[in-house]
Amino acid sequence: MSHKEESTMEEAELELSRLRSGPITPKMRMQIPPQAMPAQDPIERRSNMNEVALGYSSAQAMLEAERCLQCKNAPCIAGCPVRVDIPGFIGKIKEGDFLGAARIIKRTNLLPSICGRVCPQETQCQAPCTVGKALHGVEKAVQIGRLERFAADYERSRGAVEIPHVAQKTARKVAIVGSGPAGLTCAVDVRREGHSVAIFEAFHKPGGVMVYGIPEFRLPKVLVQAEAEVLESMGVDFELNFLVGRTRPLLSLIKEDGFDAIFIGTGAGLPKFMDIPGENLVGVFSANEYLTRTNLLKAYLKGRAGTPIYYSRRVAVLGGGNVAMDSARMALRLGAEEVRVLYRRTRSEMPARAEEVEHAMEEGIIFDFLKSPTRVLGDDRGRVAALEVLSYELGEPDESGRRKPVPIHGSEEIIPFDTVIVAIGNESNPLISKTTPELQVDRHGHIIVDDRQRTSIDRVYAGGDIVLGSATVILAMGEGRRAAQSINEIIQ
């Protein structure tokens, strides 16, 4: 931990002591600045896979909790997809009852240590925060996500994680396809009612995008494994290396295996490409492949990993979302000398979390805004050698509300690269829909559901990215909860 971080924690203790020497008025609360998140030094973290954000100290958490006005209308709850009692758990942190805070969160959110790290709170629960609105900036809102992480980490560090209560065993059983956030959440809520639950996971580890997509330095995999172990303690069965649609057809789970209902939470794992010349050259990767090799298969453990990783010196990452940030920061940790992010718009239009962009910039990643490639150029061995890059300017807003990039003709330039990572989004894997013709999907391959997560097939439900496209962990969890409620109602 750096001297600066120690100083910040010490300052928090002093400020907390000063504030609590007398009554704290709403005006005083508004004057408390948001507590900065302690983090690894940028130079040091470029060469390790350890978590970047280190978490609040107790004093920092309690001081941040003092910023909450405990609004009676609680707009933050309305911004949370699973409706966590945010004022309730923050009030417990303010009192120093950290375990009590964790208990309140876990009434509706089984994965707070994960959500507190990777969910975009600035566009969800923190966006409507009264404090942030009064101070004219969501970055000045109460740091709900950081407090959520603190409470969850405290509970785990004290060995005080509680296993959810399971009702008396019933004769019903439910199949969950996919062990990402939607599947895990649905599984817990169904299992709580006493029904048997089996989770079918295509990979050799549970967790879905949380293990194959999000890097270790942002979400330690030990946390995901711990959450899976909670489910196992509840009696949930995991069937790993089981690809529904290939290992077994989807509907055979009902017709032959006797499951009373199925929830599909397989995510959106089919990568998109740019459809430009040269994308078939050696050295062009989808972000999915690149991150799966490094996150799930640990290719960064050179000489010890069971999968190789492409050696890179100059890396281009195409895209502006969180996956692009993850890919760029991973490439740096794998030894690249230079990593550049090419994005057709400006920083203000980037969908990536501001914190992730800031961390990438601190680590030395270069951002080429208003630029996008038109073709990939190769050498005589069929490997990536360069990109032809076109410059853009911003025009009128498009359907997403962001200003549309307009190409500047004649601005093409050649930039040398030996690796290209395409991180422009994902589509739904068509395996289940193609092997289950009764299942209705839209033109993008997303499963069509109603407001209760019901699909076109009786007793088959779906949620998460397979329905929404690329979404957030907490949005997927919200859909998993709704599906579980619907399933529990029909199989009682």
SSE arrangement:
Blueprint: H1 3-19, H2 26-30, H3 42-45, H4 58-65, H5 75-78, H6 86-95, H7 98-105, H8 112-118, H9 130-134, H10 144-157, E1 173-177, H11 181-191, E2 196-200, H12 209-212, H13 221-234, E3 237-239, H14 252-255, E4 261-264, E5 270-271, E6 284-286, H15 287-295, E7 314-318, H16 322-333, E8 338-343, H17 354-362, E9 366-369, E10 371-378, E11 384-397, E12 403-407, E13 413-416, E14 419-422, E15 426-427, H18 431-435, E16 460-462, H19 465-468, H20 473-490
Helix pairs in contact: 1-4, 4-6, 6-7, 6-10, 7-10, 8-10, 11-20, 15-16
Characterise the protein shown here.
This protein starts with a helix and ends with a helix. It has 20 helices and 16 strands. A hairpin with a 5-residue loop joins strand 11 (384-397) and strand 12. The strands form four sheets. A five-stranded parallel β-sheet has the order 3-2-1-4-16, covered by helices on one side. Strands 6-14-7-8-9 form a five-stranded parallel β-sheet. The chain is 35% helix and 16% strand. By secondary structure, it is an alpha/beta fold. The model has no long low-confidence stretch (mean pLDDT 93).
Q: Cα distance, first to last residue?
A: 52 Å
Number of DSSP strand runs: 16
The CATH architecture designation of the largest domain is 3-Layer(bba) Sandwich
* Residue windows where pLDDT falls under 50 for at least 5 positions: none
Fraction of helical residues:
25-40%
Number of helices: 20
SS class: alpha/beta
Coarse shape: globular
Which oligomeric state applies?
Answer: single chain
Mean pLDDT, all residues: 93
**Class of the largest domain, according to the CATH hierarchy?**
Alpha Beta
- Strands of the largest sheet, in order across it? 3-2-1-4-16
**Proportion of residues in β-strands:** 15-25%
Our count of domains comes out at: 3
Sheet having the most strands: 5 strands, parallel
What would you give as the CATH superfamily of the largest domain? FAD/NAD(P)-binding domain
As a whole number of angstroms, the C-alpha radius of gyration is 23 Å
